[in-house]
Amino acid sequence: MRMSMGGRLLVAGILVWALVGCGSAVEGEAEPLSGQAGLFDPCTDIPDSAIRGVGLDPYTKEVDIAGVEMPGWKICTWSGDWYFVAIFSNIYSINDIRNNPEYGNLVDGSVGSRQGVMFTKMDDLDGGSCYIAAEVSQGSIWLRVNTKGLRAVEEPTCGLARNYVDELEEFWPH
Q1: What is the pTM (predicted TM-score) of this model?
Q2: Cα 114 to the center of its chain, rounded Å
C-alpha cells in the first residue's frame, strides 16, 4: 500500500509530537497521594519469605489497584490457586467499618493482641470474599480473601482469611 506525501508528513508529525510530548523529564521525588504518608505498606513491610511461608508466591504481588494509588490506602495483593489475598492498610477505624452500610456479618474478635472484626460485603451472597480487620495506630489493616473471577469457592474464605491473619499479623504495626 502506497502512502501519499501528505499522509507521510502527517505520520511523521504525529511521531514527532509523541516523542516530544513523552520525552520531557520531571525533576524531584514523586509525592505520595494525600493520606499515604505514614501508612504501613504491606508490599514492602511484609517480607517475601513470610509470603512464601504462608504458601503464596511473592512474584504474584500486585501493588495498589492495577498499580494506581488510592488516597488513604496502601494495598498489596497476592494470588493463590483459586483466590486472591489482599492486605489493605488505611486510615479508617474499626468503628468506620461498623458504621459502613456496605459491610455486614460483623464478628468481633482479636487479631493477635489487637481489637479486630471479621466481616463481609453486603452484596456478597455466595461467600466469595471475607475480610478481617485489626485496629492499629494509623487506623486499621484489613486482610481479604476473595475468589478469582467466577471461580467457585473451594473452602470457606473466612477460614482462609483467619489462617492468613494468624500467620501475617506479626508483621503489622500496633
Answers
A1: 0.78
A2: 21
